Amino acid sequence: MSPTRPSEVRALLAQLGFKPSRVLGQNFLIDANILRIMLDAADLSPRDAVLEIGPGLGVLTAPLLERAGRVVAIEKDDMLYAHLARTLAPSPTLALLHADALDCDLAGILAGGVNKVVANLPYSVGTRILVELCRAAARPERMAVTVQREVAERMAARPDTGDYGVLSVFVQIDYAVSLHKRIPRTCFFPAPQVESAIVVLARRPRPAPIHDDAAFYALVKGCFAHRRKQLGTLVRNDSALARADIDPKRRPETLSLDEWIRLCNALA
Ligand code: SAM
After folding, report:
1. 129 Cα nearest atom in ligand 1
2. Distant-in-sequence, close-in-space partners of 8: CB < 8 Å, separation ≥ 6
């Protein structure tokens, strides 16, 4: 069993001679209650194949192996990977990869049958990884991930709020997103500088009716780069705006998901 108590984590890190790196977001979970909440939020069964990015000391990986049928875990750090390989592998249901998740073919891993993602994501790359997972053709049906609290708020934000932006639209277009649980800094060792939150993403039953995915992402990104400008100025196509039934005086931050879809399809 992997350690969750602060004293055990500290002792293990000392034994390994390991100094956590801020660049790699190495803040280890030391709260058994938060661990249980994350695992429950993932709603796992032996039929599930789970992707974990950044297993660290294996605090999530070990219970994931107990609850799911298969786990793919990607760890970038040499020393942590070696520790996991010693303590968890070989296991017929674990694929432990020593790699930078940003260099991995995540879409390919998902296409290979992975249907859930459970991870305490490293701060620096968490958002990029989530967007990549949400955009994959075989996107996971459920994700329970820990991210920086501000990122969680942007993911779950509604139109007409300061947090609503590219990330909100990119993740909500195919997922119902909920900020499941706020996590104080003290639940990690070493304590990070910012608060975290568990976000749960449940894939919508049907994919969004977007005609051209690449055009959709480019439109949303391009418009939010000037979120205070009017859409008439941004898209310069009043007839498309009329077809989408959107007033050219509106600003990007006010558009609902349906309106983004209508606008993109009208522009196509
Ligand atoms: N899962 C562990 C836990 O909850 O205690 C560790 C989580 S810690 C926030 C993030 C982990 O991601 C670290 O183990 C770190 O080495 C790893 N990591 C950081 N960047 C990574 C990357 N680009 N690819 C894969 N793993 C990465």
Report:
1. 23
2. none
239-259 as b/e: b if 16+ CB within 10 A: ebbeebebeeeebbbebeeeb
Contacts of 17 (CB under 8 A, 6+ apart): none
Find the 173 Cα to ligand 1 centroid distance in Å: 27
Q: Which of 37, 77, 146 to mutate to test the pocket of ligand 1 (most atoms within 8 A of CB)?
A: 77
Q: What is the pLDDT of residues 202-211, one digit of tens each?
A: 999 999 999 9
C-alpha of residue 9 to centroid of ligand 1, in Å = 15
| CATH topology classification for 213-267 | Helicase, Ruva Protein; domain 3 (1.10.8)
Mutate-to-test residue for ligand 1 from 35, 51, 53, highest number of ligand atoms within 8 A of CB: 53
What's the 136 CA to ligand 1 centre distance in angstroms? 21
69 neighbors 216 (Cβ within 8 angstroms): no
Does residue 263 have its Cβ closer than 6 Å to ligand 1? no
Nearest-angstrom CA–CA distance, 28 and 55: 9
Strand partners, 111: none
pTM, entire model? 0.95
Q: What is the CATH number of domain 6-203?
A: 3.40.50.150
Q: Is 11 helix (H, G, I), strand (E, B) or coil?
A: helix
pLDDT at 19 over 90: yes
Query: Taking the domains of the chain in order of start, what are their residue ranges?
Result: 6-203, 213-267
